[in-house]
Amino acid sequence: MFNFLKKKETEDHVQYDESGIDAGDLVDKKRLSENMDEEVFTDLSIHPEWQLPEEEVYVYRFLNNDLPPLRPNQVSVHGVEIKPKDGGLVVESFVRNSLAKGIQLKPAAILVLDKQSETVARKTFDLNAVGTIPGRSSRPWSFLFPPSSIINKEGEIPVHGWRLAIELKKKPAKHKLDLEESWSETLESEEVEKLDRFVDSITPPKPGEMNFLSLEARQVDTGDLHVTLLLRNGSDRDLAMKHLSLRVEDAFGEVAAEGGFKLKDLEVKANTSKPWTFIFPPKSIKKDELDLSKWKAYPLQK
Predict the structure, then answer these.
(1) What are the sequence ranges of the domains in the chain?
(2) What's residue 268's pLDDT?
(3) How does strand 255-268 pair with strand 239-249?
(4) In what order do the strands lie in the sheet with 272-280?
């Protein structure tokens, strides 16, 4: 049960609930209110299955009345007391809804943050268990963080300045074209725009995936085979490529060329596609006559 004597001190000026987030991240956006010009103070809502004595309801009401206001269209998980339990943590809190209508929340990861906003514990909870939270209401709820959810096993339990937060999924950055400086200096602006539109029109690689898209293959007068690929990085970090072994197959599905390339730390930035041309010398070409009306190139596994 909450210890209402440990409530946080209030301030003279209005301070919004810092754990409040856009309700659209956890509920159906069609249910959001359009009124954005008010401070929302929430009424106490006890879970219908809870049978509490009047003294406990009084404590919850006292704590709820002390909560800071939410902005319109927000939900929050506002922690009020934290204590150790069996090697983990139990956090008493209020799950809050500033919308005019009742809502049910989706499963979400809840964080315990210290006063430096460093993560103390993290666990995904099924917030459906909280039930339907009436409009403009706060519902008391306990979150149990087991030992496996504690990030810093040797750290102390935060006493002051801690808070709960709902972890929001990062929206992936839009996949875009990344040109090496030498390409930018060589290509005409119309060609760059065409490449940019092409990258924007195709399905981006899956998160964390690195793949290769064939663009152009042609054999020049010297006998070299020039193969241009789009190096597509679907991860959220830059990838440096030092070596790459490639195989090219022609229209008959036969090996047309094969070779290894040293790339001098060619970098493909996060969530970008970079065009690059690989030149196969005649000694790397496996056939006398190449039919490149249809072809594909792919990396060889080490």
Answers:
(1) 4-166, 176-299
(2) 94
(3) antiparallel
(4) 176-177, 272-280, 225-233, 210-219
Distances (CA, A) of 63 to 92, 112, 136, 157: 11, 20, 16, 22
173's tokens = 């950055």
Pairing of strands 74-85, 119-125: unpaired
**DSSP codes of every residue in 249-297:** E-TTS-EEEEEEEEEEEEEE-TTEEEEEEEEE-GGGB--SS---SS-EE
Burial class (CB within 10 angstroms; exposed 0-12, middle 13-18, buried 19+) of 169: exposed
CA atoms of 141 and 47, how far apart (whole Å): 9
pLDDT the model gives residue 19:
63
The predicted structure's pLDDT at residue 3: 46
> How many whole angstroms from its chain centre is CA 10?
34
CA dihedral 226, 230, 235, 236 (to 10 degrees): 110
Return d(Cα 69, Cα 19) in angstroms, integer.
Answer: 11
Domain 176-299's class? mainly beta
**What pLDDT score does 27 carry?**
58
Q: Which mean pLDDT values do the consecutive 10-residue runs of the chain (302 residues) have?
A: 41 56 54 61 95 94 94 92 93 95 92 92 94 96 95 81 86 86 90 93 91 94 95 92 94 95 89 96 94 94 68
> Among 39, 111, 109, which Cα is nearest to 73's?
39
pLDDT in tens, 126-179: 999 999 999 999 999 999 999 999 997 777 888 889 999 998 876 667 899 999
Distance CA 196, CA 175 (A): 10
Residues paired with 122 in a beta bridge: 111
Q: Which burial class, exposed, middle or buried, applies to 153 when counting CB atoms under 10 A from its CB (0-12, 13-18, 19+)?
A: exposed
